[in-house]
Design goal:
Length: 280
């Protein structure tokens, strides 16, 4: 019998990863040119007709060990995504055996280090504290926004609005989140956090991500909340943050905001040519 020919490779390989339930589709474009468009991001992000994710991350070649580009589920882009950065850093470390990495993003240069036992730490850079860096619509005190609830504005390569509340679970985040994501003070929309101080240097937080919705965790939101709490004098600069999906540790150090936690590579698969053809 003559062996059957292998089918042509016309699909698109991808990885599914998550950090504390904050889930990602990751496309590795270092070895081949893979055009990723907002339409592809939206199709992939559909949890019923695609794969489903909170963010899509694309790995490409860059000035450092790799360059990362992020898309939200609605097809919009984000300069930063902390949990996805940590997941990809762990993947590259496992591939190469490296203990430290230099990653580039639209946010800037980010550095990662292996903490052992599958735990990875990523330096998300210095927080943006000025109104025009975040950005906000006009000059104002970023520590006390003129919004009911007295939130704090912080930039971590993407905008954040953090509310400190008595009980995060009493907030209807499904309505509270979109109401503030589109607040006119945030011309590029914003991620929204509700945070509760539960002990010394211990925060409970829930998050609404712009362009996505309620997520189980968010690395950049955790960094922004840690910075906001320290600026308010509610905590020190090194905190534990409990999210719906698990716990992250954040340290606002002199060289930037370090975010540390676990990550999971769930599976590797290939998008079919049929799925990709449906996007044209």
């Amino acid at each position: 019998m003559r062996a059957m020919a292998e089918p042509a490779d016309t699909g698109l390989p991808f990885m599914k990863m998550h950090g504390l339930g904050n889930d990602f589709v990751v496309v590795d474009a270092r070895a081949r040119d893979i055009p990723v468009t907002p339409a592809l991001a939206r199709a992939l992000g559909d949890r019923h007709r695609g794969v489903g994710f909170d963010q899509l991350a694309v790995i490409s070649n860059g000035a450092g060990d790799a360059h990362l580009t992020f898309y939200n589920a609605d097809g919009s882009t984000s300069a930063a995504c902390g949990n996805a950065t940590r997941c990809i850093a762990r993947h590259i470390m496992d591939q190469t055996g490296a203990k430290t990495l230099h990653l580039t993003t639209d946010r800037g240069d980010l550095y990662a280090r292996d903490m052992g036992d599958g735990i990875t730490s990523v330096n998300m850079g210095a927080p943006q504290l000025e109104w025009d860096e975040i950005p906000l619509a006009h000059a104002m005190d970023t520590l006390h926004l003129p919004i009911e609830g007295d939130p704090v504005a912080t930039g971590m390569g993407n905008p954040h609005c953090t509310f400190f509340v008595d009980d995060v679970d009493a907030i209807d985040l499904a309505s509270f989140g979109p109401e503030h994501e589109h607040h006119p003070l945030y011309p590029e929309r914003t991620n929204v956090q509700v945070a509760q101080i539960v002990g010394p240097n211990h925060i409970r937080m829930r998050v609404w991500e712009r362009g996505v919705g309620v997520t189980l965790a968010s690395g950049s939101s955790s960094c922004a909340t840690a910075v906001a709490a320290a600026r308010r004098g509610l905590t020190g600069r090194k905190v534990r943050i409990d999210l719906d999906g698990g716990t992250l540790h954040v340290d606002w150090a002199e060289d930037g905001v370090w975010m540390t936690g676990p990550s999971t590579h769930v599976f590797t698969a290939t998008l079919t040519a049929e799925f990709l053809a449906g996007l044209t």
